[in-house]
Write a structure and sequence with these properties.
Strand 1 and strand 2 form a beta hairpin. The termini are far apart. Strands 1, 2, 3, 4, 5 and 6 form a six-stranded mixed beta sheet that branches. The protein is an alpha+beta fold. The chain is about 50% helix and about 20% strand. The radius of gyration is 22 Å and the shape is elongated. InterPro entries: BAG_chaperone_regulator (IPR039773), BAG_dom_sf (IPR036533), BAG_domain (IPR003103), Ubiquitin-like_dom (IPR000626), Ubiquitin-like_domsf (IPR029071).
Length: about 210
């Protein structure tokens, strides 16, 4: 179920349940308010698409909405199934004008979505790997094993550096996409800092000779 806010409609005297979200489109932020239909207690992606169009002016057929790294494509899917709650942030990217054979993505969007997916996947891997390093340090392994673990951390760092190089080499004309690239760069830099912390952790954790 959603965390609804209840508002009194002054014109009808009826209490309405609403869900307030934030839509991020490039450097702009839009407040999106969804009203639950009278005949339902659930909101779906179709309601969200319509509300975003009303607020941003971007037609539904040119919207690509992303929530927690996943693209929203099924208009019938309930928002509650995706864990969308009050104050959730939705990213809006625009598609190219539909062609005869169907809708297509802009080149910029396709590149950024691909890199975004890579960052998300490698971020999840780093989270799991961090736990492995913490467990390793608690076991006081020998020096040789610790050096092998540090090599693994270095390999993860190199993967993130490759992503930064890919982002740096991506030519983007639209301001929206340059803003998204900047966000991805900052995210990867944050993950690299976590790698530095893991290396430091391995340097100071006890090890047998």
């Amino acid at each position: 179920m959603f965390n609804f806010f209840s508002l009194l409609n002054m014109s009808t005297g009826v209490v309405e349940n609403v869900l307030k979200l934030v839509c991020s489109h490039g450097s702009k932020k839009y407040n999106v308010t969804l009203k639950c239909p009278e005949d339902s207690t659930e909101l779906n992606c179709g309601h969200l698409f319509s509300a975003v169009e009303n607020v941003t002016g971007v037609p539904e057929n040119r919207q690509r909405l992303i929530f927690k790294g996943k693209s929203l494509t099924d208009a019938a899917q309930n928002l509650s199934e995706m864990g969308m709650k009050e104050g959730a942030i939705i990213m809006l990217m625009t598609k190219a004008i539909p062609c005869k054979d169907g809708e297509t993505l802009t080149k910029e969007e396709e590149v950024l979505l691909t890199i975004d997916s890579e960052v998300e996947a490698k971020g999840r891997y780093l989270q799991e790997f961090t736990q492995n390093v913490m467990d390793f340090c608690q076991q006081a392994e020998d020096q040789k094993a610790r050096e092998k673990m540090k090599i693994k951390v270095k390999a993860v760092e190199e993967e993130f550096m490759k992503l930064l190089e890919k982002l740096d080499g991506t030519v983007l004309e639209a301001t929206d996409y340059r803003t998204k690239r900047k966000e991805l760069v900052m995210k990867v830099q944050g993950l690299l800092q976590r790698c530095d912390c893991l290396t430091e952790m391995l340097n100071i954790c006890p090890a047998t000779v």
